[in-house]
Structures are given as structure tokens and as C-alpha cells.
Amino acid sequence: MNRDYLKWAALAFALVATASAEYELARAVGYNQWVAAAVPGALDVWTVRAMRQHRDVLAAVLAMIVVNALSHLVTAGLLEVSVPLVVGVSAIAPLVLYRLHAITGADEPPADSPAVPEAAEPVQAPVQVDTPAPAPVEPAQRELHVICGGQQPFALDVPARPEPRRLDADEAKAAILQAWKDGLSLAEAAQVATRSRSYVQQVYARLDSERDSAPLALVKDGVSA
To answer: pTM for this one?
Structure first.
């Protein structure tokens, strides 16, 4: 909560001072005593909203200056109520409505759009990911073992299982995406991508959440590989 009481007090006094002149101008061009209060109310709401959004501040302040100047000119008898003046005052409410929509509409999602978590990562444009072919693995040399009860070594026919090559980040993401499309389990996908099961689970969850709201794509800026 902003506790700058002096700033808010100055703002309140300024709005009260300008509201009086705006009300009198609305009365001068034909508004009744109740509807005329909507003119300063609309201008004040626009100004406060513009200051909170840091947008349209100059336009809102200039509008208040012009309306106040016209009001005092009419009150002092230096300006007569004419057709252009009536049209200008009548345009205040539609102008405020348009500007409030312009400065707040971009920050509020449509009512029918799905809610997006605040921490959601930006979704990359869909790309075609080709699963890289696995690198050829040379067969390991057979090891010699000594059978109990003798000194003659015998070669076993089963070669030692080679350690899988760890895929780089792009290859791992591509492998996980393909595994997700093929319906592989977390354990199977982790083995194919040479990554931990927890990492694969996070990528799976991300892909599941994007299934209905965006084209299938692997987020390169997602969880660190």
C-alpha cells in the first residue's frame, strides 16, 4: 500500500478544485444538476487511472486544463455558449470511455480466454523437431574370465553393455517431445533422452498444459536441461 499521504492529499484537493469548474461548464451547456456531476467524475477517474497505469497522463491533464479554462471563460462572460462548445462538452464522456478502454484493455485478458499462470514461460512458435538418429556405438571388446576349477581363460560371448551417450540439450528436448507424442512412460522417456525422470516429468506437464491452448511445441526456454 502506498503511504505517501501528502501526494494523495494533493491529488484529492486538485480533483475537487477542477471538479467544480467542470460541473459548472456542464450545467452551462444544458446538463441537469445530476447528470452534470458525471462530467467531472469521468475526467477524474480517467486522470487517476492514467496515473496508475503511467499511460495517457499528459492527455488526461490537458483535457482537464482545457475544460477548466472553458468553464472559467464562460463564468466570467468572456466566452458565449455556442454550438462548438456544446458539442465539445458532449464529447467528453465518449472520449473518456474510449481512452479508459485503450489503456486498460491490453492488461486484462478476454473473459472467454483460459487463465494463464503468472509464472508461465513464453510459448515459442511451433517448430518441426526431427528426432536425431542415435550415434553408432562400437561394440566393446570381450573380457576374458577364468572359470572356477581351472587356469584356462575363456572368452564370454556377451559383450559388456556400453554406457549410453548423453544427448545435448536440443537433442534431449527433441527426444522428450517425440516420446510424449508416442505415449512413452516417464521412465522410458528419461532413458531415451538421457535425462532424469523429474526433468522429463516437468516437460511432460508443460506439454500437457499446452495441449488445448497452443500448437504442440517444445519450449526451448523452459526448465533447464
So the answer is: 0.42
